[in-house]
Structure formats: C-alpha cells, structure tokens
Structure prediction request, 129 residues.
Amino acid sequence: MAKLEDITVGSTVKGIAGNESVSIVAGQWYGSNVLEITYKDTRGTLGTQLLYRDDEVNVEVLANHLPWSFDADGNQMKLASEAYRNKFSAFIRSVSGSAYVFCRATATSDFSSIPRNAAEGTTPVRSGR
Prediction:
C-alpha cells in the first residue's frame, strides 16, 4: 500500500497496469484526492490513468528516484564553472583577437591596420590607394 503522494516522476510502481511494474513519466493533481499519471511500461508503451484514494491499497511504490538529480553543492558548481571559464578564456581571446585581425587584414587590403577592440577608440586607417 502506498499513498498517492509517494507516486512521483521517476518512481517505479506496481499495481497500475495489472501486476507489471511501470515507470511514472508525469503526474497531475486534481484537488487532493485524484492524481492523473502518465506511465511507461516495460515494453515502452505509454499510458495514462486516474488514481483515487481508494486505489492506494492496490498500488505499491518499488523505487522512488530519478536516474539523475540536481543535489550537488552549488558553491562547488560555481567554482568549477569559473575554472572552466578561466581555462578557455585565454584560448577564446587569442583566437578572436589575433586570428580575426590577421584574417580580416589579409582579406581586405583597404585597411592598413584594424583595431583589436572598438572600445579603445581606434579607427581603421585607409591605405593611400
């Protein structure tokens, strides 16, 4: 016997589609006594069913977890993200800076110099053609 509140997304439940275990894909509450579930059986077939409080005696929750979760420490995630950003920022700067200037300067012969950063206030100088 399981309470309707125990049936969550990712749960493996027995007693909904006969004696076969199913995996809960989605759940929608209607009030506090009715739960509409979408489930997937072992063959991969989707189904939906309304569960009422009276159905609690027939339902058994075998496993109640998701294959993945977001329960890691947030501070460690920030630290790792910042480390990756720092690691790749030098690469991105070098590619976007020198390679872009080189490609742009060789592709357009009208400019003798191309500013690396428009925020520096430098402007392209036209060659004296």
Notes: The two ends are 88 Å apart (CA to CA). The beta strands are 11-17, 20-30, 34-40, 46-52, 60-64, 111-113, 125-126.
